[in-house]
Amino acid sequence: FFKNRVKKAFVKWCAYEGWFDGVLSKAEIKLAKNKGHLPEDLDVHHMLPLSGTEDPIVNSFSNLCVLHKETHIQINKEIFQPQLKGIDKAPYGHQRVISIPLFQPVDIAGILRERKKVLDKSDKVVYNIFKGGRG
């Protein structure tokens, strides 16, 4: 349900609200608006984690954000995993308070930073071809 309905609706909403402006290309924004698709390097993150909660807010737009996949992996590895370690061994009904990072609907700075890292590592040279030659 999340992947096929909520995620696509959230991505479309972000696109129509202008959250991707200056972050995604025009073609990527068009795909987001029309189909609810994100580029492969981006992901939708639940700020309040899916696991361990029965709160209906978990799939609401206010609990979702678009992150670069590298940021998403880092959050899960460095923030959530240490805080949730051993929760499976806790008695049934046990509650644990955890700290969660909050984001705007789109982590603009994080996405641009991670995409820049990829470009910086690229050994490709880009040439702009003009009528009078290379520029």
Structure notes:
By secondary structure, the chain is an alpha+beta fold. The chain is 41% helix and 10% strand. It has four helices and four strands. The chain has a two-stranded antiparallel ribbon with strand order 1-2. β3 and β4 form a beta hairpin. The longest helix has 16 residues, at 69-84. The chain is globular, with a radius of gyration of 19 Å. The relative contact order is 0.14. The model has no long low-confidence stretch (mean pLDDT 86).
Rg, rounded, reads 19 Å
What would the average pLDDT be, to the nearest integer? Answer: 86
Spatial separation of the terminal alpha carbons: 49 Å
Give me the number of helical elements: 4
Percent strand: 5-15%
* Backbone structural class: alpha+beta
Name the strands of the widest sheet in spatial order. Answer: 1-2
Low-confidence stretches: none
Quick one: how many beta strands? 4
Give the proportion of residues in helices.
Answer: 40-55%
- H/E series, N to C? HHEEHHEE
Main beta sheet: 2 strands, antiparallel
Give the overall shape.
Answer: globular
List the main descriptive attributes of the protein structure presented here.
alpha+beta; 4 strands; 4 helices; 135 residues
Summarize the structure.
The strands form 2 sheets. A two-stranded antiparallel ribbon has the order 1-2. Strands 3-4 form a two-stranded antiparallel ribbon. The protein has 4 helices and 4 strands.
Give the arrangement of secondary structure elements.
Blueprint: H1 2-16, H2 26-35, E1 42-46, E2 64-68, H3 69-84, H4 108-121, E3 129-130, E4 133-134
Antiparallel strand pairs: 1-2, 3-4
